Automatic annotation (TrEMBL), chain A:
Protein's UniProt name: Urease accessory protein F
HAMAP family in the cross-refs: UreF (MF_01385)
Role summary: Required for the maturation and activation of urease via the functional incorporation of the urease nickel metallocenter.
Stated family: Belongs to the UreF family.
TrEMBL record, chain B:
Keyword Chaperone: yes
Protein name from the UniProt record: Urease accessory protein D
Source organism superkingdom: Eukaryota
Alphabetical UniProt keywords: Chaperone
GO BP term, pick one: urea metabolic process
HAMAP family in alphabetical order: UreD (MF_01384)
Length: 290, 299
C-alpha cells in the first residue's frame, strides 16, 4: 500500500487530487487504511487508553444547555468542513528539514505548536469571543493580518477562517449576526477572515463562554496537527490517539497559562518553528498547504 | 518616552544633504556619528549606538528616539554584540527605540546581535512610524548567549517587539518571547541552533533587494528540504541513521507583508553567529549604494 506521502512524492500532480480526497471522504476511512503502517509495538499501548475520556469537550453537566452542547460538539468535530485537514501547522516542513523524525520529536513539536498557539492566537480568540461584534472583530482581524508575518501561516489562517465563517453562517442560520457578517464582508477586500478571530467570534455568537472558546481553539489545533502527523506517516492513528491523550494535560496547562490575555500581549514563542513553517512553500513535493 | 529618553536623534535635509541636526545621548547610551563611513559622494548619516561596558546591566533602560526627515538616509549600528548581563533579582535590561521615517527616506537599523548572559532578563521594543513611500531596513537578532563557553539559551527572559505603523494602521506587528519555565526549556526548543535573526525590508527603494533575497533563500532552502521517505520508508531510515539526521546549518524563509506586498521579512535560524553574519553580509550587500558602506562587512 502506498502512503499518501510517498504517492505525492512519486507523482507531484497527485498532490492536489489527494488533498481534495482528504477533504471530501470521511477522514477515518483514510486513517484506517494507514493503520497497517503503525508498528505493532504501539498497539500494545491500547491498554492505557481504556479511560479514553473526552475532557477536551466541555461537559459540565450541571445546568448545561443541551442544544449548546450539540453545537459545541459540532464545532469541534473534524467533520465540519473548514479545511483544517489541509494544514500541518509546519509539521511537514519540520519533517523535511529533519527537525521532526520520530514520535518523541512529534510530541515536542505538538507541545511547541500549542504553546505558540496559546501565546500568539489565544488572545485573539479571547477578545473576539468576549465581545462578538463586527466592529471589534474587524480591528482584531486587521491586527492579526499584521501579526501573522509568516506568509504560510497567514494564508492558512485566512483560508480556514473564511471557510469557517461560510460553514458557520450556513449551519447556524438562527444567528442573525453571522448572516449579517457574511453578507457584509465576504468578498470584501478590507478584511482577511483570520481563523483565530473568526473562531472566537463564532464561539461568542453561539454562546460559548470565553474559557470554552479558548480551550476549543487549542483542541482543534492539536487535533489538526495529529491528523497531519498520521497522514504524513509519522505515527499510526492509534498511537496518535495515545499521544493526544498524553499531551492533553500539557495543552490544558498552556491554555491556562495564556488564556484571557489582551491582544497587545500576543507573542510568538517558537521562533525556530516559525522559520521552518515559512519554508513550506520551498518544498518540491508536499501534501499539505501549510 | 520623550522625557525619559536617553537618546534623541534628528536627521533633516540641510543644503540638499542628510544632516544630523540633533544628537543627544546620556548615560548609559553614547552615540557616535562618524562622518567618514562611506565616500563623501554618498548621502547617509551613520550612527553608532554604544553602551558603557559594551552591554546593558540589569535594571538599566536605554531608550532612543530617531526622526528621519523626508529624503534623508540614516544607518544605525553597533560596534559589537550588545551584551545583556546577568539579572539582579527580577530586574530587566531594556532597549527602546521609537523612529519616524519620512517620505522617500531610508532608515537602516543594522546592529550586531544581542547576547543574553545566563539568568539575564531582556526586553526590547522598536516602533517605526512610516509613510507610504518610506524605506526601512531592520535587522533584529539574538544569540543563545556565550555559547562557546557553554552558556547556551540560559537566560531567563527575552522579549523583542517590532511594530511598524503606516499612519495609524498596523503594518507589521512582531513579538518574540522566550522564557524559561515552559514544558520544554529554550535549549530544547532551539535544538542545535544558536542564532535567531529577522530582517525586515520595506519600501520602494528596496524592492530589488527583497526580490533577490526571496529568490536566493528559496534556492538555498529548496535543495535542503526533502521528504523523509526518499531513502526508503521512514521506519527503515530511522534504524539506519543516527538519532538526528543532518539538518541544515542555516534555515531561512521569506514572507511578504502588507496588503500591497511592500514589505518583506526574512527569518533565519543558524547554528553559529558566523553563518548568520555571512548570510546578512551577502543578502544586504546591495544596500551599499544607499549607505556608502556595506552592512556587516568583514572586520
Amino acid at each position: 500500500m502506498y502512503s499518501p506521502n510517498s504517492l505525492a512524492q512519486l507523482v507531484p500532480n497527485v498532490l492536489y487530487l489527494l488533498k481534495s480526497l482528504v477533504l471530501e471522504i470521511v477522514p477515518s476511512t483514510l486513517l484506517m487504511l494507514m493503520e497497517s503502517d503503525s508498528p505493532v509495538s504501539k498497539k500494545s499501548r491500547l491498554f492505557h487508553t481504556e479511560d479514553c475520556e473526552m475532557e477536551e469537550v466541555p461537559s459540565n453537566a450541571v445546568g448545561v444547555n443541551p442544544s449548546l452542547q450539540w453545537t459545541q460538539w459540532q464545532i469541534l468535530d473534524s467533520i465540519l468542513p473548514t479545511g483544517g485537514f489541509a494544514h500541518s501547522y509546519g509539521l511537514e516542513a519540520a519533517m523535511q528539514s529533519r527537525m521532526v523524525n520520530n514520535q518523541d520529536d512529534l510530541k515536542s513539536f505538538v507541545i511547541q505548536v500549542l504553546d505558540n498557539t496559546g501565546s500568539l492566537l489565544l488572545p485573539f480568540v479571547y477578545c473576539a469571543s468576549k465581545s462578538p461584534d463586527a466592529a471589534a472583530w474587524i480591528k482584531l482581524d486587521q491586527l492579526l493580518e499584521a501579526t501573522l508575518t509568516n506568509e504560510v501561516a497567514r494564508k492558512a489562517s485566512t483560508s480556514q477562517g473564511s471557510a469557517l465563517l461560510r460553514v458557520a453562517a450556513s449551519v447556524f442560520t438562527e444567528s442573525q449576526a453571522l448572516q449579517d457578517l457574511r453578507r457584509t464582508f465576504l468578498g470584501s477586500k478590507s478584511v482577511s477572515f483570520h481563523h483565530a478571530s473568526i473562531f472566537g467570534l463564532i464561539c461568542g455568537l453561539v454562546g460559548f463562554d470565553s474559557e470554552t472558546a479558548q480551550r476549543a481553539y487549542m483542541f482543534v489545533t492539536m487535533r489538526d496537527v495529529f491528523s497531519a502527523a498520521t497522514r504524513l506517516n509519522l505515527i499510526g492513528p492509534l498511537a496518535a490517539s495515545v499521544l493526544q491523550h498524553q499531551v492533553a494535560p500539557d495543552a490544558e496547562g498552556m491554555m491556562q497559562k495564556w488564556r484571557d490575555r489582551d491582544v497587545s500581549e500576543a507573542s510568538q514563542t517558537a521562533p525556530l518553528l516559525d522559520v521552518l513553517q515559512g519554508c513550506h512553500a520551498y518544498m518540491f513535493s508536499r501534501l499539505f498547504s501549510s | 518616552m520623550a522625557e525619559a529618553a536617553t537618546g534623541a536623534v534628528r536627521v533633516e535635509r540641510v543644503r540638499g544633504r542628510s544632516a544630523l541636526t540633533r544628537c543627544f545621548a546620556r548615560y548609559p547610551l553614547k552615540l557616535i556619528a562618524p562622518s567618514k563611513v562611506g565616500p563623501s559622494s554618498c548621502d547617509a548619516v551613520w550612527l553608532y549606538a554604544l553602551t558603557y561596558g559594551g552591554g546593558i546591566v540589569s535594571g538599566d533602560t536605554v531608550s532612543c528616539t530617531v526622526s528621519v526627515g523626508d529624503g534623508c538616509t540614516v544607518a544605525i549600528t553597533t560596534q559589537a554584540s550588545t551584551k545583556v548581563y546577568k539579572a539582579v533579582g527580577s530586574k530587566c535590561s531594556e532597549q527602546l527605540l521609537e523612529a519616524r521615517v519620512g517620505e522617500d527616506a531610508l532608515l537602516a537599523v543594522i546592529p550586531d546581535p544581542v547576547t543574553c548572559f545566563s539568568t539575564a532578563r531582556y526586553h526590547q521594543k522598536q516602533v517605526f512610524h512610516v509613510s507610504a513611500n518610506s524605506n526601512l531596513v531592520v535587522v533584529d537578532w539574538f544569540t543563545s548567549g556565550r555559547y562557546e563557553s557553554g552558556e547556551k539559551w540560559d537566560f531567563s527572559f527575552y522579549k523583542s517587539v517590532n511594530h511598524i505603523f503606516l499612519g495609524d494602521q498596523p503594518l507589521f506587528i512582531d513579538s518574540t518571547l522566550l522564557e524559561q519555565g515552559s514544558t520544554y526549556s529554550i535549549v530544547e526548543r532551539m535544538q542545535e541552533y544558536n542564532v535567531i535573526a529577522m530582517v525586515v525590508l520595506l519600501g520602494p527603494k528596496l524592492r530589488h533587494i527583497q526580490d533577490k533575497m526571496q529568490d536566493e533563500v528559496k534556492k538555498l532552502m529548496s535543495g535542503q528540504l526533502r521528504p523523509p521517505t526518499s531513502g526508503g520508508s521512514l521506519y527503515t531510515m530511522r534504524s539506519q541513521l543516527p538519532q538526528h539526521p543532518q539538518r541544515p546549518q542555516l534555515v531561512a524563509s521569506c514572507s511578504p507583508f502588507g496588503r500591497t506586498g511592500t514589505g518583506m521579512v526574512a527569518r533565519v535560524a543558524a547554528v553559529n553567529t558566523e553563518l548568520a553574519y555571512s548570510f546578512l553580509r551577502h543578502r544586504l550587500a546591495e544596500l551599499e549604494p544607499f549607505l556608502g558602506a556595506p552592512p556587516y562587512a568583514a572586520s
